[in-house]
Amino acid sequence: MPPSRLEVSLADQRLDLFRGHECVRSWPVSTAKKGAGEQSGSEKTPRGWHRIRAMIGAGCPAGTVFVGRRPTGEVWTPELGKEHPQRDWILTRILWLSGNEPGVNRLGDVDTQRRYIYIHGCPDSEPLGEALSHGCIRMHNRDVITLFDAVTPGFPVLIKSPDQEST
After folding, report:
1. Residue pair 88/132 in contact by the 8 Å Cβ criterion
2. Of these residues, 60, 120, 122, 140, which one is catalytic?
3. Residue (of 39, 54, 49) closest to 2 by Cα position
4. Most CB atoms closer than 10 Å: which of 48, 55, 122, 164?
5. pLDDT value for 5
6. Triad 86, 92, 98: Cα angle to 5°
7. Would you tell me how many other CB atoms lie within 10 Å of the CB of residue 2?
8. Which positions of the chain have pLDDT values less than 70?
9. Identified catalytic residue from 50, 60, 122, 136
10. The dihedral of CA 95, 118, 7, 156: what is its sign?
11. How far is Cα 7 from Cα 159, in angstroms, rounded to an integer?
């Protein structure tokens, strides 16, 4: 394993930041409601080794709303949330993931990057620790800012399903 990495536990709905063999930070997350899977259009969270392809939102205020990886000029509020209850809110920061494993999570119909799978902020009112997303990995805003400031493009990310938890 690389000396520094992120590990996402689908079983525990947790994201851990490792420096060497030591877990230095841990946060609750929400991954896909439909479970683990790599297929395009599945709304599932892809497993395996990834890397951070791009980091979007540096310097934006907490709650900045993104659509298509671009800030809309809106900042999320409970009132805005009530006006648009159908929106899947992507807020504050985006860590866009790219798969490292051809045929597993890279290229063809299993390409994490082309599926637009991110680690991103969500409204702080959204529950974490439960699988409720459309495939991405959601975090509360203050947590995704802390994570964003602790990683760099190319940083390794391992997304583990329950059957991989012992590895």
Report:
1. no
2. 120
3. 49
4. 122
5. 97
6. 90
7. 11
8. 1-2, 164-167
9. 136
10. negative
11. 6
* Token pair listed for 61: 């205020």
DSSP letters along the chain, please?
Answer: --SEEEEEETTTTEEEEEETTEEEEEEE-B-BTT-B--STTS--BPPEEEEEEEEE-TTPPTTEEEETTEEEEEE--HHHHHH-TT---EEEEEEEEEE-SBTTTBSGGG-TTTTT-EEEEE-TTS--SS--BSSSEEEEHHHHHHHHHH--TT-EEEEE-GGGTT-
Pick the CATH number of 31-155 from 1.20.120, 2.40.50, 1.10.10, 2.40.440: 2.40.440
The C-alpha atoms of residue 94 and residue 55 are separated, in whole angstroms, by 6
Q: Which of 65, 131, 73 is nearest to 94 (CA)?
A: 65
- 136 among known catalytic residues: yes
In one-letter notation, the amino acid at residue 7 is: E
Indicate the residue type of 38: E
Give the pLDDT confidence of 104-139 residue by residue, as tens digits: 999 999 999 999 999 999 999 999 999 999 999 999
